Amino acid sequence: MIERLKELGDEALQEIKEANTIKALEDVRVKYLGKKGPITEVLRGMGKLSAEERPKVGQKANDVREHIQEKLDEKSAELEKKALEEKLQAESVDVTLPGKEIKRGARHPLTAVVEEIEDIFIGLGFQVTEGPEVETDYYNFEALNLPQEHPARDMQDSFYVTTDMLLRTQTSPVQARTMEKHEGKGPVKIVCPGKVYRRDDDDATHSHQFLQIEGLYVDHNIRMSDLKGILEAFVQKYFGVDRSIRLRPSFFPFTEPSVEVDVSCGICEGEGCRICKHTGWIEVLGAGMVHPRVLEMSGFDPEEYSGFAFGMGVERFAMLKYGIDDIRHFYTNDIRFLDQFKRA
Ligand code: DAH
């Protein structure tokens, strides 16, 4: 029996040596040390032994077991170490490789221009306000001195939602809404950016949906010269200090007098070129002194208060600054177009 145990021990050691994976090693352990293993088998036959032999066989069996266990532990530690080394090797990172390029988005050019214009007016003491895009006929027209059947309504073909609700055709209704909230007390000094809608056919310079920024300044003693000063400061901040403005008489129902504002052409510096249609000037916005009727309808006393207002198209300002020749580029979102504004 002693001989058999020795053989088993040798066999086990050989198999441990050959086991190359943790799984194979575990199989060896189960095979030799498990409940159904050959050593247990040998011990079962001990009953037939003499009292003298029994302790010797028992002792040998324990020795063999312990030895096998020891070798198993050693080998297991060795295999684990090897596995860890292989894992580290496989997962090692070459820090000298170039990194993957991460595609970064950017603000849409129109968002950037709106924010830039807002910032300029904030610097001039204006507050930024917004109003609804689905507007009532009252605020979009009536409160701006455009009663039903007024011919000037035709200047802005509209999308009606119901008989007295429409997609606003201009940001001017925010003027009336804001003045109402002030309950007849100035100053009101706001700019209002937002989307507007007109029933126009889209082409290089027209879009059925575009952006405007409205401005309104109502207080005691506001004069036309204030309007001119603010607009000149704005234009020079936006386009550059070398640019100037001029005012031409115009008509808007909500202002009296009304003006069209031109900025000197930055391409030819007044010489005349294709961009300014050989006039040296580019029309950029509409403005004027708030009509007394408009002040009155929104709760301001025109004897006590006066104000100026202006409205501009954001796309036009963006196109002029960045030399964009088609308004549709802003809305078709060609990534090659948008990518150019990453740093703008
Ligand atoms: N609402 C006008 C338009 O869409 C632009 C405008 C002109 C706004 C004169 C004003 C203004 O506030 O005073 O054509």
Automatic annotation (TrEMBL):
<keyword id="KW-0436">Ligase</keyword>
<dbReference type="Pfam" id="PF01409">
    <property type="entry name" value="tRNA-synt_2d"/>
</dbReference>
<dbReference type="InterPro" id="IPR004188">
    <property type="entry name" value="Phe-tRNA_ligase_II_N"/>
</dbReference>
<keyword id="KW-0067">ATP-binding</keyword>
<keyword id="KW-0175">Coiled coil</keyword>
<keyword id="KW-0963">Cytoplasm</keyword>
<feature type="coiled-coil region">
    <location>
        <begin position="65"/>
        <end position="94"/>
    </location>
</feature>
<dbReference type="GO" id="GO:0140096">
    <property type="term" value="F:catalytic activity, acting on a protein"/>
</dbReference>
<keyword id="KW-0030">Aminoacyl-tRNA synthetase</keyword>
<dbReference type="InterPro" id="IPR045864">
    <property type="entry name" value="aa-tRNA-synth_II/BPL/LPL"/>
</dbReference>
<dbReference type="Pfam" id="PF02912">
    <property type="entry name" value="Phe_tRNA-synt_N"/>
</dbReference>
<feature type="domain" description="Aminoacyl-transfer RNA synthetases class-II family profile">
    <location>
        <begin position="111"/>
        <end position="320"/>
    </location>
</feature>
<feature type="binding site">
    <location>
        <position position="256"/>
    </location>
    <ligand>
        <name>Mg(2+)</name>
    </ligand>
</feature>
<dbReference type="GO" id="GO:0006432">
    <property type="term" value="P:phenylalanyl-tRNA aminoacylation"/>
</dbReference>
<dbReference type="InterPro" id="IPR010978">
    <property type="entry name" value="tRNA-bd_arm"/>
</dbReference>
<dbReference type="GO" id="GO:0004826">
    <property type="term" value="F:phenylalanine-tRNA ligase activity"/>
</dbReference>
<keyword id="KW-0547">Nucleotide-binding</keyword>
<dbReference type="GO" id="GO:0005524">
    <property type="term" value="F:ATP binding"/>
</dbReference>
<dbReference type="GO" id="GO:0016740">
    <property type="term" value="F:transferase activity"/>
</dbReference>
<dbReference type="InterPro" id="IPR006195">
    <property type="entry name" value="aa-tRNA-synth_II"/>
</dbReference>
<comment type="similarity">
    <text>Belongs to the class-II aminoacyl-tRNA synthetase family. Phe-tRNA synthetase alpha subunit type 1 subfamily.</text>
</comment>
<dbReference type="GO" id="GO:0000049">
    <property type="term" value="F:tRNA binding"/>
</dbReference>
<comment type="subunit">
    <text>Tetramer of two alpha and two beta subunits.</text>
</comment>
<dbReference type="InterPro" id="IPR022911">
    <property type="entry name" value="Phe_tRNA_ligase_alpha1_bac"/>
</dbReference>
<dbReference type="GO" id="GO:0000287">
    <property type="term" value="F:magnesium ion binding"/>
</dbReference>
<dbReference type="GO" id="GO:0005737">
    <property type="term" value="C:cytoplasm"/>
</dbReference>
<protein>
    <recommendedName>
        <fullName>Phenylalanine--tRNA ligase alpha subunit</fullName>
        <ecNumber>6.1.1.20</ecNumber>
    </recommendedName>
</protein>
<keyword id="KW-0479">Metal-binding</keyword>
<dbReference type="InterPro" id="IPR004529">
    <property type="entry name" value="Phe-tRNA-synth_IIc_asu"/>
</dbReference>
<keyword id="KW-0648">Protein biosynthesis</keyword>
<dbReference type="InterPro" id="IPR002319">
    <property type="entry name" value="Phenylalanyl-tRNA_Synthase"/>
</dbReference>
<keyword id="KW-0460">Magnesium</keyword>
